[in-house]
Amino acid sequence: MTRSQLVFLSALSLLSHTVQAEVYKWINDQGQVEYSDQYREGAETVQIAPLSTIQMPKLTDVPTTAEQPAEPEATLYKKLAITFPQPEASFHSGNGDVSVTVEVAPELLPSHSLRLSLDGESVTVGRATTFSLPNVERGTHQLSLDVVDSTSVIQSASPVSFTIHRPSALKKPIHPTPKAP
Questions:
Q1: Has residue 70 got a pLDDT over 50?
Q2: Considering the entire predicted model, what is its pTM?
Q3: Distance between CA atoms of 98 and 152, rounded to whole angstroms?
């Protein structure tokens, strides 16, 4: 039996089960097998096996999204932290450059990257564990670190606040005036 005949027979069997009609089979003048729910001279009745059915749950038995228990978020990285600057650190930087180091364990998965943000704005994305932030303004800032893939944040580290001190462009350095001998 060809595939199209099987499909047709299956469709007819579904129909016949629903309306309890007989299915007939015969060979036409071109020698092809045909099926119908109407008897023709020379047709034989096709015995169709009972269909397997499943009982679907009632809509009232299916929990809504709010009722479904939340799955615990898997922690892929046992260690994800900004190691420098340390929380609440305060330091001087004449040019405003800040070196940032992070720790990730185990090693990043190939599809993951690190995203470092300063004061809520992404400053770099990559796989390195050391970053250089040039010309950071004086004041208190917050660093955040996320493991990201191409579409979303996978895991976040605790943010770190630090304060950077820089010389003021408004104040001129005081140089002692040499005294006359």
A1: no
A2: 0.53
A3: 27
CA pair distance 115, 149, nearest whole angstrom: 10
**Half-sphere CA count of 131, side-chain side, radius 13 A:** 26
Report how far residue 22's alpha carbon sits from residue 79's, in angstroms, rounded to the nearest whole number.
Answer: 69
Q: What is the distance of C-alpha 83 from the center of its chain?
A: 27
> Which candidate, 21, 13, 53, places its Cα nearest to that of 37?
21
What superfamily does domain 79-165 belong to in CATH? Answer: Immunoglobulins (2.60.40.10)
Quote the tokens at residue 36. 């119908």
HSE (side-chain half, CA atoms, 13 Å) at 117: 14
> Rounded to an integer, what distance in angstroms lies between the CA atom of residue 124 and that of residue 105?
20
Kindly report, residue by residue over 6-38, the tens digit of the pLDDT.
666 666 666 554 455 688 888 888 988 888 888
Contact 105, 120 (CB under 8 A): no
Closest CA to 130 of 164, 87, 96, 97: 97
Determine phi and psi for 21, rounding to 5 degrees. -95, 155
Alpha carbon distance 160, 87 (integer Å): 5
